[in-house]
Specification:
globular, alpha/beta, 16 strands, 7 helices, Nitrilase/N-carbamoyl-D-aminoacid amidohydrolase
C-alpha cells in the first residue's frame, strides 16, 4: 500500500541587503518574503517543507564582517517561534535553516526541524565548513557541527538534513541513511560557474546509493554588495532510483512540490542491497585522522 507524502521546497530571492539597513530589518524582510510561499505550501497540502540555507537573509559569507554576527539567533528561538504557528495551522513539518548562536562567539550553520503540530524536534548543525574562493569564507562565521547526523521522526516521515557543502561528502549522506532517513533535505546557497555541473549529479547519486528521497534547495538571484555570481535555483526532488520528480526554475522565487511514495524505498532496497552488502569492517582507513 502506498505511503505518499507531499514534499515542498521554497527557493527565494533575498529582498534587501542595503548597508544602511539593520540586520534585523533585512531578516524581517526575508521572513516576510517567505510567508506567502509557506501559505501556498499549506494550501497545496505540503506535509514536509524545507526552506533554503540561512533562509532569513542573504548568503553573507563572501564577506568577513562582524556585522553579520548580529544575524545569529538561538535555536529554538525567534525563527522557530515565528513558524511554529504556521506548522500547526497547516499540519506541516518544516525544516528551518538559520544562523545559530550557541553562546558568545560560538556560531553554527543550523537547521531546526518542526513537526506538524509545531513541536520543535531538534536541529542539525552543518558538519563540513568550506573556506574557499570565490567568496565562501564560512569558517569566519561557523564552527563545524557537533551533533552528528541526526534523523527526526516527523508525523509523516523520517527526515534527515545535510546543508550545502555537506553534499560533497558521501560519508554523512550514508550515515543519514543508516540512521533511518527516508527523506534528506539539502538547503543550499550555490552559484553558477562553481558547482552547477555537480548540482544534479551528486545528490541523485546519494539518493541511489542510500535508497532514499532527496530534496535539494538553492536560492535565486544575485546578492549585492558581493555579487559572487548568480544563485541558480533549480531546486528539486529526486527519488531513490535517481529519477527527478519536480524541478524549479533557474531564476524565480517559487515553491516546488512533489509526491513522495515512501514504499518505493522498500522496493528499491529489496533490489539494490547496498546496506546488506556494505563492508564496514574494511573501511577502517576512512576514519583515520590523518592520511
Amino acid at each position: 500500500m502506498a505511503r505518499v507524502v507531499r514534499g515542498g521546497l521554497i527557493q527565494c530571492r533575498n529582498p534587501i541587503n542595503d548597508e544602511g539597513v539593520t540586520v534585523a530589518q533585512i531578516q524581517q524582510a526575508a521572513l516576510e518574503a517567505h510567508l506567502p510561499f509557506i501559505e501556498e505550501a499549506g494550501q497545496k497540502g505540503v506535509q514536509l517543507l524545507c526552506l533554503q540555507e540561512i533562509f532569513n537573509g542573504p548568503y553573507f559569507c563572501p564577506s568577513q564582517a562582524i556585522r553579520w554576527y548580529d544575524a545569529a539567533e538561538s535555536v529554538p528561538g525567534p525563527s522557530t517561534e515565528a513558524l511554529q504557528p504556521l506548522a500547526r495551522k497547516h499540519s506541516m513539518s518544516i525544516v528551518v535553516p538559520v544562523y545559530e548562536r550557541e553562546q558568545a562567539g560560538v556560531y553554527y550553520n543550523t537547521a531546526a526541524v518542526l513537526d506538524a503540530d509545531g513541536t520543535y524536534l531538534g536541529k542539525y548543525r552543518k558538519n563540513h565548513i568550506p573556506q574557499c574562493n570565490p567568496g565562501f569564507w564560512e569558517k569566519f562565521y561557523f564552527k563545524p557541527g557537533n551533533l552528528g547526523y541526526p534523523v527526526f521522526r516527523t508525523k509523516y516521515a523520517m527526515v534527515g538534513v545535510y546543508i550545502c557543502y555537506d553534499r560533497h561528502f558521501p560519508e554523512g549522506a550514508r550515515a543519514l541513511g543508516l540512521n533511518g532517513a527516508e527523506v534528506v533535505f539539502n538547503p543550499s546557497a550555490t552559484v553558477a560557474g562553481l558547482s552547477e555541473y555537480l548540482w544534479k549529479l551528486e545528490q541523485p547519486a546519494h539518493a541511489v546509493a542510500n535508497g532514499y528521497y532527496v530534496g535539494a534547495i538553492n536560492r535565486v538571484g544575485t546578492e549585492a554588495p558581493w555579487d559572487i555570481g548568480e544563485f541558480y535555483g533549480q531546486s528539486y526532488f529526486v527519488d531513490p532510483r535517481g529519477k527527478f520528480l519536480a524541478t524549479a526554475s533557474r531564476d524565480r522565487s517559487e515553491l516546488v512540490t512533489a509526491d513522495l511514495d515512501l514504499e518505493v524505498i522498500e522496493e528499491v532496497r529489496r533490489v539494490w542491497q547496498f546496506y546488506r552488502d556494505r563492508r564496514p569492517d574494511s573501511y577502517g582507513d576512512l576514519t583515520r585522522a590523518e592520511r
